[in-house]
Amino acid sequence: MNKDIKIYLETLSEKAYSDFSTKLIPNARHILGVRIPQLRKYAVHLAKTQGAAVLADKDDFYYEETMLRGMIIGYLKTDTETRLNLIRDFVPQINNWAVCDSFCNTLKFTTQNRERVWDFLQDYFSSSREFDRRFAAVMLLCHYVNEEYIERTLSVLWAMNTTEYYVSMGVAWAAAECFIRFPEHTLPYIKSKTFDKETQNRTIQKICDSYRVDKQQKEQLKKYK
To answer: In the chain, where are the structural domains located?
Structure first.
């Protein structure tokens, strides 16, 4: 992004938070240590004052610039197809879980465009790239764990290639949320044990870590590890 944005991000940096984030987010480089609420506030400001033009300069150096770029795409006032094109350009830049998950959570426009976005996601469900599939799984988690889409969501999750760690974690997280909200729909999938062992166990562990699931259900699920 442009020099002024880089300089402003530098003024928000915290050394201790940078050190903490560097340990927490593998693959991320040049982490300044800017907190997420500050990034979101700045992204809203840039989206409002500069619009899509702010995305033209793709010379990102800091991790926070990439994070900020994803947030701006979510906050822009634009039409659906333009935003989808921006998303398509951005997804290849995702190389860590934090950028991925923050980006997905910011794409609130999906609520009013679920079917169009569902169609858009199809290539990502079966992509050969780890963070493409992580993106797809977290999009399901954030926007498609609902009554209308639960069966489609479950079917896609259990069909995804989860051999890579960050895909497995994303799928397990989404699958656990499906169980928490729709246990009757999700339990047959867990019972089938069609996930690889790691993803199966991660799903069950995430469910067992939830305060929204009772002790009896947790004990039942442990049988399927």
So the answer is: 1-95, 107-225
What does each C-alpha distance from 206 to 87, 114, 138 come to in angstroms?
29, 26, 15
27 pLDDT band (50/70/90 cuts)? confident
Torsion of CA 126, 128, 131, 137, to 10 degrees: 20
| Domain 107-225: assigned CATH number | 1.25.40
**Residue that wins the pLDDT comparison between 60 and 105:** 105
pLDDT of 76 above 90: yes
| Rounded (10°) CA dihedral 48, 54, 56, 61 | -140
Q: What is the 3-state secondary structure (H, E, C) of 42-88?
A: HHHHHHHHCHHHHHCCCCCCCHHHHHHHHHHHHHCCCCHHHHHHHHH
Looking at residues 56-78, what average pLDDT do you find? 95
Question: What are the tokens at 191?
Answer: 């019972």
Please, which residues have CB within 8 angstroms of residue 169's CB and are 6 or more apart in sequence? 97, 134, 202
Residue 178, amino acid: C
> pLDDT tens, 33-56?
999 999 999 999 999 999 999 999
Mean pLDDT of 108-125: 98
Say how many C-beta atoms besides its own lie within 10 A of residue 41's C-beta. 13
Mean pLDDT computed over 138-167: 98
